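Run log // design_07
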């Protein structure tokens, strides 16, 4: 029996990759919204319809009683007010609203303030229309090679065989698998009661930035080769990043944060959603997109 229709915004994102088949496995019909057409090689599933975000209109959203936004939040802020029959919205934002609000980097600070403003506007719309809003703020996401931190580190290791870190790189991290986030979203959708959540979602391990890098080496089957660079020198080098292959996206503030703890308490999510994230033990599968066979398994179907 169908549980109803869910619109998934960002269906091609790293969370969406795992979320769409898990929703199908739970009996939902899915309107999968992404930039562009259906992904090449994606299995044919009943109850799944792909839609280019640029061509999405209000009529297409009218059948959806529920919505999951995997980002950016700006798309949810634009589409939720146009969804006439929406009862529940599960929206992924970022835990950076806790850690970067007072960032010394003006660009980061402006970005976070914009996200917080959009969260507030979305919350006001949902409150006015009686839509149950679950605002989920993940920590460091990984799981299918699409993220910009852990997979970036893995690509660097594969290319150069070593990795530089800032000093002891002792700041704590809680990397979270995108599939665990997908399962949390499903749990929020199937809850019989309004949730009104606004919580962080963390990974199953709390470890230093340096230890996180060690586990990436191990998962790739590479010898651990870490070069500790004085933080001030490392930050100075990043200012020349455009001249150094591989460092173009690294900024001084990123270097500084390797010494900071970016950890949060997700006890409420664990209690309300039965959230049980896996420990950070990445293998090769965590650095590549799941193939058709794995997607079919996630959807609860036998291998074709």
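design_07 sequence
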């Amino acid at each position: 029996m169908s549980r109803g229709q869910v619109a998934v915004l960002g269906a091609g994102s790293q969370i969406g990759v795992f979320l769409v088949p898990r929703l199908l496995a739970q009996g939902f019909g899915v309107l999968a919204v992404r930039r562009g057409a259906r992904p090449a090689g994606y299995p044919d599933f009943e109850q799944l319809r792909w839609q280019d975000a640029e061509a999405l209109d209000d009529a297409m959203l009218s059948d959806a009683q529920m919505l999951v936004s995997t980002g950016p939040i700006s798309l949810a802020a634009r589409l939720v007010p146009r969804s006439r029959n929406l009862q529940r919205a599960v929206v992924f934002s970022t835990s950076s609203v806790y850690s970067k609000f007072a960032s010394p980097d003006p660009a980061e600070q402006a970005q976070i303030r914009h996200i917080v403003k959009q969260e507030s506007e979305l919350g006001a719309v949902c409150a006015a229309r009686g839509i149950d809003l679950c605002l989920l703020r993940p920590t460091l996401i990984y799981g299918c090679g699409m993220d910009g931190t852990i997979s970036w580190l893995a690509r660097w290791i594969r290319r150069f065989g070593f990795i530089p870190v800032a000093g002891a790189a002792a700041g704590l991290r809680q990397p979270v698998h995108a599939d665990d986030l997908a399962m949390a979203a499903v749990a929020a959708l199937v809850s019989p009661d309004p949730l009104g959540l606004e919580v962080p979602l963390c990974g199953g391990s709390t470890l230093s930035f340096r230890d996180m890098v060690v586990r990436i080496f191990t998962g790739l089957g590479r010898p651990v080769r870490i070069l500790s660079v004085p933080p001030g020198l490392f930050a100075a080098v990043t200012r020349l990043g455009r001249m150094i292959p591989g460092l173009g996206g690294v900024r001084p503030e990123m270097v500084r944060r390797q010494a900071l703890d970016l950890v949060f308490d997700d006890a409420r999510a664990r209690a309300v959603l039965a959230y049980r994230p896996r420990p950070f033990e990445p293998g090769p599968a965590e650095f590549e997109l799941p193939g058709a066979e794995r997607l079919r398994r996630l959807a609860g179907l036998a291998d074709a």
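The two ends are 23 Å apart (CA to CA).
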